[in-house]
Amino acid sequence: MEQGLVLAALLFAMGLVGVMVRRNIILILMSVEVMLNACGLAFIVAGARWGQADGQIMFMLILAIAAAEVSVGLGLLLQVHRRLGSIDIDKTSRLKG
User: Fold this and answer.
1) What is the spatial distance between Cα 13 and Cα 53, in angstroms, rounded to a whole number?
2) Which helix (H) or strand (E) holds 22?
């Protein structure tokens, strides 16, 4: 159990660093996906430890949330690219008001 949780923590930390450091919207969305998968892995490991299917059910919920996040994120990405001509996150500050 400890190894699985350590792996989940490492994946989550890598995703968090990716969200904080990157400026490209696509890479930020990919980092959020890595963070969601790390949470799902933690639920799977905990569910397997106690012999319950709750972890797998939570992972299915996380997959649904990830799919919704991707669809909304890509829609926003298309609008930002259409208005600004770039997907750099720093240029989105011009979208105020």
Assistant:
1) 26
2) none
- Tens digit of pLDDT for each residue in 13-42? 999 999 999 888 889 999 999 999 999 999
- Looking at per-residue confidence, does 85 or 41 come out higher? 41
CB 32 within 8 A of CB 69: yes
Q: Which of 15, 16, 22, 26 is nearest to 90 (CA)?
A: 22
Q: Is 77 helix (H, G, I), strand (E, B) or coil?
A: helix
pTM beyond 0.90: no
Q: Where are the beta strands (DSSP E) in the chain?
A: none
Whether 31 and 18 have beta carbons less than 8 Å apart is answered as yes
